Amino acid sequence: MTEQTLPSTGREWHLAARPQGWPVPEDFALVEAPVQAPAAGQILVRNEYLSVDPYMRGRMNDVKSYVPPFRLGAVMDGGAVGRVVASAAKGFAVGDAVLHGLGWREYATLDADKAIRVDDALPLQSYLGVLGMTGLTAYAGLLEVGGFQPGEAVFVSGAAGAVGSMVGQIAKLRGASLVVGSAGSDEKVRMLTEELGFDVAFNYRNGPVAEQLAKAAPEGIDVYFDNVGGEHLEAAIGALRLKGRAVLCGAIAQYNDTTPPVGPRNLALAIGKRLRLEGMLVGDHYALQPAFVAEVGGWMAEGRLVFEETVVEGFDRTVEAFLGLLRGANTGKMLVRVDG
Amino acid sequence: MTEQTLPSTGREWHLAARPQGWPVPEDFALVEAPVQAPAAGQILVRNEYLSVDPYMRGRMNDVKSYVPPFRLGAVMDGGAVGRVVASAAKGFAVGDAVLHGLGWREYATLDADKAIRVDDALPLQSYLGVLGMTGLTAYAGLLEVGGFQPGEAVFVSGAAGAVGSMVGQIAKLRGASLVVGSAGSDEKVRMLTEELGFDVAFNYRNGPVAEQLAKAAPEGIDVYFDNVGGEHLEAAIGALRLKGRAVLCGAIAQYNDTTPPVGPRNLALAIGKRLRLEGMLVGDHYALQPAFVAEVGGWMAEGRLVFEETVVEGFDRTVEAFLGLLRGANTGKMLVRVDG
Hints:
- The structure is a homodimer.
- Chain A is of the alpha/beta class.
- Chain A has two domains: 9-128 and 309-337, Medium-chain alcohol dehydrogenases, catalytic domain (Quinone Oxidoreductase, Chain A, domain 1, Alpha-Beta Complex), CATH 3.90.180.10; 133-283, 3-Layer(aba) Sandwich (Rossmann fold).
- Helix content of chain A is 25%, strand content 25%.
- The first copy, chain A, contains nine helices and 15 strands.
- The first copy, chain A, has helices at 55-59, 133-145, 162-173, 186-194, 209-216, 230-239, 269-273, 289-301, 318-327; strands at residues 9-15, 28-34, 42-51, 80-87, 97-100, 107-111, 116-117, 153-156, 178-183, 200-203, 221-226, 240-248, 276-279, 309-313, 333-337.
- In chain A, strands 3, 4, 5, 6, 7, 14 and 15 form a seven-stranded mixed β-sheet that branches. A six-stranded parallel β-sheet of chain A has the order 10-9-8-11-12-13, sandwiched between helices. In chain A, strands 1-2 form a two-stranded antiparallel ribbon.
- Chain A binds chain B through residues 58, 65-67, 229, 233-234, 242, 248-251, 254, 260-281, 284, and chain B through 58, 65-67, 229, 233-234, 242, 248-251, 254, 260-281, 284.
- Strand 13 of chain A pairs antiparallel with strand 13 of chain B, so a sheet runs across the interface.
């Protein structure tokens, strides 16, 4: 084990209460906890960036799901990147940059086989976004689940978000005939068309989604990438052409609902149009990782891909970052810089 | 052209008005029309059996769809079997049994290449059902769209209908671990388990579908074959297991609604469970026809497949048969015997 002066305690965010509807700061507790020295085969990591993601809201509920819920009174989890500060594991040295799943804490002690060493020639936080789960979700969802083909028209909701902004850009780079995005502010809408290369974008707060989508894509769409659910999904079902596909990736519009949302009333259109609606979790698509890194990494190197991020500075503001994400306060990937 | 004494007129059913909600007898008109002698390349067929099908209700509305609407004041269409009574086409002789698409009339004059000669060793009406579109819909929907695999659990709504009763039996014959069906009367429910080999069946009028389905399939289902839409689809989304599939084939529960139906409020479950919902029309699956006829014909020959039919006797009762179908008055395939 490589030795250096290590802190005896670090801060971590615990789940203090299960939210009813929208989470509030009181649902979380900032706790000072002992830092565990790494046992054989383990490493101790000082986290530099933490990811906050919409799926975390679902894990705060105590419901049976295919991702286990966060435990009450225990530390939250999530994607994180940082550097090894102590190692009792072969192949990991102090200073190595790693990606792992023990976020929401300053220091993480974990089995080395649960960490992935990453190349720090790129900004570390890109492994939480464009080259990480976010990017792979967009890539696999559009291409593998959505079966996107060059020349097709694509609509993305939550298009200014981390996943949505990647979906639209990948679609353009792969030869879409039309890319339409929706977002929740005029500023985001401007960013979509002026910086990210979307053909058309609209603010869903400015009028019914179905009407705005019909104007944006009067001939219809072939693929809908759904980050939102609700009214957006219904509008997309109406706009999808024969054999269109809807990729169900998120439903952030309804994560905090305490009553069941309204389902798409026009779902029977799927029969005549032979639509396919399919849910996805990125974990099913890790086999695509090499192709994804090669293609997206190439676009990054060529400067053809804009990666937006919103960085909240300071570990103590992690909850603020998460709550902001749920309200749509971010543009692109929402991150916390631990030392901000 | 082979000559024989031909009638100068025949009866046909016209669409007299577009129904608002449930069709009524006044929406149809029985008309006496001249019988057209076949031109070169044509045949004249005396129809023996007519098919009435749920999809016809959709075609009565004047809405843009991928199947054109019936024209007001013109004769209705639909599957029919009959015998050639005059032929001006090579390869078709008087007395030949044929399957074609000009139903809702006693006599049909049509291009011979629009007719399919059928083997009359089997009852002619089986080409409108078990060996026709009905059977192929069930076969292609379960196997090709639904991706059913031996050992999986299947739920079928409208299970006593023409398509539903085939789906359940094909699933059992192909090795399903569990086949559950729903129907709208206790008598139909009994028929499903006692005659058609369903493992469990329930009457959806006897209580919430979700509760009855949870009792029937406490461990969940892998494939849902939807003939009904509405509450059934929502219940099935709740019961589908990881990577489950819903085949959207019909939505008879809502064909006569004048207000939009309620969509499945739990559709966001499709994300975590990675469900696939896919609409189908049988016309996309004609390539499966040879495999279908071989396998289903084999089961028929071995007496392993029960084919239920409800035959309404008499051409003048065609509308009665169709309206009865929409109310669920049939068990299995609903047919009209022209000469009844």
